Amino acid sequence: MTPTPSETFVIENLRLYFRTHQGPVQAVDGVSLTLGRGRTIVVVGESGCGKTSLGRAILRLLPRNVQTYSGSVWLNGVDVMALPEEQFRQQVRWTQLAWVPQGAMNALNPVIGIGDQIAEALLAHQQADNPLSARRAVEEGVGQVGVPLDFLDRYPFELSGGMRQRLVLAMALITHPDVIVLDEPTSALDVLTQANIMNVLKTIKRSTDTRFILITHDIAASSELADDAAVMYAGQFVEVSGADQFYREPLHPYSQALMASVPALRGDKRLAAIPGQPPSLINPPTGCRFADRCPARFSKCSEEPPLFPVGGRLVKCWLYEERAHAE
Amino acid sequence: MPNDLLLSIRDLHTWFELRRWGFVRVGFVHAVDGVDFDLHRGEAVAIVGESGCGKSTLAKTILGLHLPRQGEIIFDGKPVRGREDLRWYRARVGYIQQDPYGAVPPFMRVQRILEEPLIINGIGPKDERVGRIRTALEDVKLTPVDDFLPRFPHMLSGGQQQRLVIARAMILQPQLIVADEPVSMLDASVRVEILQLLRGLQERYGLSVIYITHDLSTVRYFCERVCVMYGGLIIERASMADLLRTPRHPYTQALLAAIPDPDPANAHRLRDVPSGEPPSLLHPPAACRFHPRCPSFMPGICDIHVPKDFEPSPGQHVLCWLYDDTGLVAPSSTKRA
Question: Which of A39, A44, A189, A190 to probe by mutation at the B interface, max B CB count within 10 Å?
């Protein structure tokens, strides 16, 4: 892919390997995606498939044992991966690329008042000249996520999990970033609180042109926000597709199995488990990484399939080779 | 069919005392506040509610891990009261914990973990114990058994650990299993496997199961009857089919409306969610505990009179004045119902 129009957010061939005693862990192994203005992509997968590492790799929030970190992330026409760390910190992270971490309700500083904490983000990134204007911006941002203003003078322990989750969301939104990475934003919350947060996210999505990358293992909840969906397995995307087609008719055998394992409240769906275990990311299989568990495997699966384009979707499976060539 | 009844709970209250500086009593957390509940032999019942509604406390009280402040547990026709009763009772009830790794001792091998309850309950000789352990492992499909016996818990995957916990709960051949969120820590693909396994064991051994969960969508695949808890009380009891077709209590209705199924249409509409937070169990709201959040709140009734148990359709019980067909409480009446 050539450098891109400044309107889209593009990740090309992102890799993140961790160094361990047993060898490199290939947590993110060549992930590419394109996200238009105002769109949301959900990344779904089982635990240990590398989806959180993907989020961290996009934001360059890396642990110390990184072995390989390569690829490019194009944002507003700039490859932000190429920037030096200090410039990335000042100009990109939180100003253009924001992050809502997993278990966000425990991400707040317990000894600083809520309002001051959110204002800090603005002041640190020179988006407010003085504390007073920062405070005004905070009040506006907090109103946006539906938290009463008198909560701003309280401390995190005085608030419920759902309130804290909204405030972390307000913190991420306060700098009007172009892209927000949400890592499991609702998984620790109750059903009603979860529906509430999803409503807030939908409203924000409609009123701004922020792009969201929603990382989750909860497929039912992911459909609340998705424009596009990507399925991650063993460090790679195995399917990237529009949400409408994905939730109705997943293509990759792994996506199909994953969908069949999701309990549904309505309708009379039969549940099926996926046999076997995901492969180790230290020595992943050389061919298709899902082949060992796949009900449709055949001889060709010992080679690694590319992402085949099928009807505007991408599927990493040899089953779609002919359909891809026919189009 | 009175002898069909395995467990019945009458007016159960479990309160926790709250103290400040160690001695000043501040009040009580009314975690379980008047629960009546019947369980038949071979039946699987789910208790559903949000966190903080008292469902885990109810489970632990049923298991005898918390002492009720008031009320009675009658198991197999015998009330469970003193220490001797508890010993007899606990040997007949199995417990499946939420977090499998936290529930097994990390320094014991699988064989020892499963042998412990047998030793404590004086089952022997050794050959018989080993035989039972092997059967239990086969039942939960941890096979080949010889591979698993010498392993430590950290050598098992999350799903296998949960199977081990199930095997331990089954090892004394109990009549009742209490499963407290048995799948909430597991991945979706493993979740189904564990639920199917539990269901299979339940049918095979004619077990009664109490399945505690916050996730209504898994209940369908496991239980015939559901109890919905809110603020320390069971506010609605019904068969799963009735509950899905005609949820009666406004809280149940809200809960069902909030649960998404995987559907791309979800992204295009907002969900109706009642405002506010679950009630504090230290000072629960007066009368109906849902009234501050209820969309059908009737002033003068819901905030003054404690709702009674109504049965709007056979087998479906609900604590809500909307279904009052006796006309006992008129809006003008101020008498306590």
Answer: A190
How far B262 CA sits from the closest chain A CA (Å)?
4
Report d(CA A76, CA A4) in Å as an integer: 9
Q: How far apart are CA B78 and CA B61, in angstroms?
A: 16
Number of alpha carbons in the 13 Å side-chain half-sphere of residue A323: 15
- Is A65 exposed, middle or buried, given 0-12, 13-18 or 19+ CB atoms closer than 10 A? exposed
Q: Is A291 exposed, middle or buried (0-12, 13-18, 19+ CB in 10 A)?
A: buried
Per DSSP, the residues of B79-127 read: E--SHHHHHHHHTTEEEE-S-HHHHS-TTS-HHHHHHHHHHHTT---HH
CA separation for the pair B7, B2 (Å, rounded): 11
Under DSSP, is residue A152 helix (H, G, I), strand (E, B) or coil? helix
The complex's ipTM works out to 0.83
Chain A CB contacts of B262 below 8 Å: 219-220, 222-223, 247, 259, 262, 264
Is the distance from CB of A97 to CB of A58 less than 8 angstroms? yes
Q: Please state the φ and ψ torsions of residue B43, each to the nearest 5 degrees.
A: -110, 145
**Mean pLDDT over each residue of chain A, to the nearest integer:** 90
Q: Do A263 and B215 touch (CB under 8 A)?
A: yes
State both tokens at B98: 């939420």
pLDDT computed for residue A266 by the predictor: 82
User: Do B59 and B180 touch, CB atoms closer than 8 A?
Assistant: yes
pLDDT tens figures, A82-135: 999 999 998 999 999 999 988 777 889 999 999 999 999 889 888 888 889 999
Reduce the DSSP state of residue A248 to 3 states and report it. helix
Are the Cβ atoms of B263 and A261 closer than 8 angstroms? no
Cβ partners under 8 Å of residue A86, min gap 6:
none
CB contacts < 8 A (A, B): 115
- What is the enclosing helix (H) or strand (E) of A117? helix A114-124
Mean pLDDT of A42-62: 91
Query: Model's pTM, two decimal places?
Result: 0.87
Contacts with A135 (C-beta within 8 Å, 6 or more apart), sequence order: A115, A119
- Residue in chain A nearest B157 by alpha carbon: A277
In angstroms, the first-to-last Cα distance of chain A is 20
Dihedrals phi, psi of B101, to nearest 5 degrees: -70, -35
- Using a 10 angstrom Cβ sphere, with 0-12 exposed, 13-18 middle and 19 or more buried, the burial of residue A153 is exposed
A22/chain B closest Cα distance in angstroms: 17
Dihedral sign, Cα of residue A74, residue A78, residue A79, residue A85: negative
CA A23/CA A245 separation, integer angstroms = 38
Task: Find which of A52, A164, A191, A224 to mutate to test the B interface (most B CBs within 10 Å of its CB).
Answer: A191
In the three-class reduction of DSSP (H, G, I as helix; E, B as strand; rest coil), residue A165 is classed as helix
Report the 10 Å Cβ neighbour count for A209.
12
d(CA B312, CA B307): 14
**Secondary structure class of A98 (helix, strand, coil):** strand
Task: Name all contacts of B63-66 with Cβ < 8 Å and 24+ positions apart.
Answer: B63/B90, B63/B93, B63/B95, B63/B178, B64/B89, B64/B90, B64/B93, B66/B14
Reduced to 3 DSSP states, what percent helix, strand and coil does chain A have, rounded to the nearest 5?
Answer: 35, 20, 40
> Which positions in chain B touch A257 (Cβ < 8 Å)?
189
